[in-house]
Amino acid sequence: MSATTTTAWLASRLAAGRTGQRAELVDALVRDGYRAHFALRGERLDQRVTEAAVLLATVTGQDIEETADGRFQIFDGTAADRVIATVDPQARHGHKTAAHGFDGYKMECGGTSPAQP
């Protein structure tokens, strides 16, 4: 069974409500990402493919740790400057309070006020 077929199979089992499959799915997805990067090593890539490969590397590596037995899992916590949307890599999570979060963008703003008499 190919990696893509395995990942699709695991995703379908997870969607069907079978428990205990999330860890296998995460491990398979990370391994698929690593295999894609390995296949691209040494290749001349156009700019769009290079940008996609960089985004894949970022998403594959964030919030993931390797366990002692060599499996990949999501770690507790969140990576700094985590990419939350592959379709919009500049979007970020934010929090006003521990209970209220939002997704958005960082912004710098400056201004001047009229001189006081």
Which helices and strands, and how do they pair?
Blueprint: H1 3-15, H2 22-40, H3 47-61, E1 64-66, E2 72-74, E3 92-95, E4 101-104
Antiparallel strand pairs: 1-2, 3-4
Helix pairs in contact: 1-2, 2-3
Summarize the structure.
With 117 residues, the protein is an alpha+beta fold. It has helices spanning 3-15, 22-40, 47-61; strands spanning 64-66, 72-74, 92-95, 101-104.
Would you kindly provide a written description of the structure presented here, covering whatever features stand out?
- Helices cover 40% and strands 12% of the residues.
- It is an alpha+beta fold and 117 residues long.
- It has a domain at 3-78.
- Strands 1-2 form a two-stranded antiparallel sheet.
- It is extended, with a radius of gyration of 20 Å.
- The N and C termini lie far apart (78 Å).
- The mean pLDDT is 75.
